[in-house]
């Protein structure tokens, strides 16, 4: 097996330089990192607890304690409806033809359920209505499918029941549904940030993903959003897609730079869920490409694609956290910084199908099947799939992992103040950091650690392989 993986690392496009990371991954000491990137789980968004079957009331108690200390929270609502299913997507979705006779009732139901679940959260945690929301995210799925009256009703509920005084409002849509009238309604409702998936600016690749829009649709959305006064526009691009070449990625990055976007999310295609049911990102079963066993670019080419992003964006854009690039003139993506930066790491509450909520002491993931989600709500139950608690040691470990994923330097004084233990004395963390330093993946100067360029490229693998308490103690 390992021989095949090493061969895949060697397989590069000769017109581009061989990425230095191929040598790093070939070293025996990094065999676990290589295995991780071959297995390819989506592991940079969820930081699991270490106490299984944590009782729900304990979760609410932990959340209440976090909220009592939190300056603000990240609140998100997830709308699962989509008009088609992309071949790469493992997000929990409900597919609907918006023109079909059943569509209006379904959209009403989705909004009703979201509000119903939010009311359950508020009943359990009255503080939720008082802690200022730092950023409110309307995520999808495709919330841009919602009819105007349903969107209005949903937003009115959130504004009436949460503290939006200082909140930034961000909306995630799908380009084919982000019409100018819809964008105008978003502005009226107070949204200032817009995000959508392009995946690529090549019509061939967009079609290959099973998506029903074109590159031109994306350009039009950007023009309209600018004219309507959106302050920030973020576009998702993916690399490592079937039939995608290194040239294709260069063209996409060139195009992205020409568009002068405030933010760009540049994600490698992940084909395996983080764990079968342990993520709000990818829990709803295999995607179409997994079922078909699609052929992907080699590992060597994937890292050439990643290297191009650094080369093309360097100078104009900064990466913070991993995969999220912001223009020099814009702040880092606020919601990501709020949950990963060491000096923040505020609680987040996610309402909707597959939502993933987290505070210092526990994390919770919602059901990902819409019928089961509906049944739970009909029975007056919180629609939870699983809850895990975090021991004090795991809280410190997760705090360190999240901070590493932010790609910002870690200051031990800040860490100690937050977790009551030093990075260099907590046994799992100290051992992992020392090993990473020895292997050239991390620098330490006095009380501050920062990832090296190789460490930054491999951060997802690093945080998911090197901080396992059961392996290190
Ligand atoms: C849930 S989508 C929401 C955006 C919107 N529904 C759209 O498609 O335009 C968020 C982003 O996650 C990324 N994504 C989804 N599945 C992925 C996968 N398997 N691997 C890597 N990125 C993925 C895509 O870039 C997508 O735009
Ligand atoms: S990528 Fe976006 S549009 Fe495509 S199925 Fe997933 S959530 Fe829906």
TrEMBL record:
Gene Ontology biological process terms from the UniProt entry: porphyrin-containing compound biosynthetic process
A single GO cellular-component term on record: cytoplasm
GO MF annotation: an example: 4 iron, 4 sulfur cluster binding
Superkingdom of source: Bacteria
Domain Radical SAM core as annotated: residue spans: 68-306
Entry-linked InterPro entries: Coproporphyrinogen-III_oxidase, Elp3/MiaA/NifB-like_rSAM, HemN_C, rSAM, rSAM_horseshoe, rSAM_sf
Coiled coil (residue ranges): none
A Pfam family: HemN_C
PANTHER family: COPROPORPHYRINIGEN III OXIDASE, RADICAL S-ADENOSYL METHIONINE DOMAIN-CONTAINING PROTEIN 1, MITOCHONDRIAL
Name of the protein in its database record: Radical SAM protein
Organism the protein comes from: Candidatus Pantoea soli
């Amino acid at each position: 097996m390992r021989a095949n993986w090493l061969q895949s690392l060697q397989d590069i496009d000769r017109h581009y330089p061989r990425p230095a990371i191929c040598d790093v991954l070939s070293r025996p000491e990094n065999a676990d990192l290589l295995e991780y990137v071959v297995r390819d789980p989506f592991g940079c968004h969820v930081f699991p607890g270490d106490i299984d079957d944590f009782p729900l009331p304990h979760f609410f108690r932990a959340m209440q304690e976090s909220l009592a200390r939190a300056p603000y929270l990240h609140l998100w609502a997830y709308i699962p409806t989509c008009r088609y299913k992309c071949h790469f997507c493992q997000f929990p979705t409900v597919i609907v033809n918006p023109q079909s006779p059943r569509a209006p009732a379904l959209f009403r139901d989705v909004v009703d359920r979201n509000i119903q679940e939010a009311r359950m959260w508020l009943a359990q945690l009255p503080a939720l209505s008082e802690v200022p929301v730092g950023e409110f995210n309307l995520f999808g799925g495709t919330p841009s499918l919602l009819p105007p009256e349903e969107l209005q009703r949903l937003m009115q509920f959130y504004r009436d029941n949460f503290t939006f005084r200082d909140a930034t409002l961000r909306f995630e849509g799908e380009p084919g549904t982000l019409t100018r009238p819809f964008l105008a309604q978003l502005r009226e409702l107070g949204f200032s940030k817009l995000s959508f998936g392009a995946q690529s600016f090549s019509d061939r690749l967009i079609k290959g993903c099973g998506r029903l829009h074109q590159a031109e649709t994306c350009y039009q959305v950007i023009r309209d959003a600018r004219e309507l006064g959106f302050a920030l526009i973020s576009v998702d691009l993916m690399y490592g897609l079937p039939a995608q070449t290194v040239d294709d990625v260069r063209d996409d990055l060139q195009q992205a730079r020409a568009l002068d976007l405030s933010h760009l999310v540049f994600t490698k295609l992940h084909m395996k869920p983080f764990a079968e049911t342990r993520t709000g990102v990818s829990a709803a079963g295999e995607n179409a490409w997994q079922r078909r066993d699609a052929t992907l670019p080699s590992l060597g080419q994937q890292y050439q694609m990643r290297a191009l992003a650094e080369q093309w964006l360097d100078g104009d854009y900064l990466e913070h956290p991993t995969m999220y690039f912001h223009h020099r003139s814009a702040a880092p993506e606020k919601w990501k910084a709020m949950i990963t930066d060491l000096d923040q790491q505020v609680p987040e509450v996610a309402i909707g199908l597959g939502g993933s909520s987290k505070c210092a002491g526990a994390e919770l993931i919602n059901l990902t099947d819409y019928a089961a989600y509906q049944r739970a709500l009909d029975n007056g139950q919180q629609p939870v799939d699983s809850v895990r608690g975090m021991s004090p040691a795991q809280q410190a470990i997760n705090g360190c992992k999240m901070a590493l994923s932010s790609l910002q330097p870690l200051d031990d004084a800040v860490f100690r103040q937050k977790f009551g233990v030093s990075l260099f004395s907590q046994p799992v963390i100290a051992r992992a950091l020392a090993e990473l330093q020895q292997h050239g993946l991390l620098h330490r100067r006095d009380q501050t650690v920062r990832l090296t360029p190789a460490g930054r490229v491999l951060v997802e693998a690093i945080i998911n392989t090197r901080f396992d308490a059961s392996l290190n103690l």
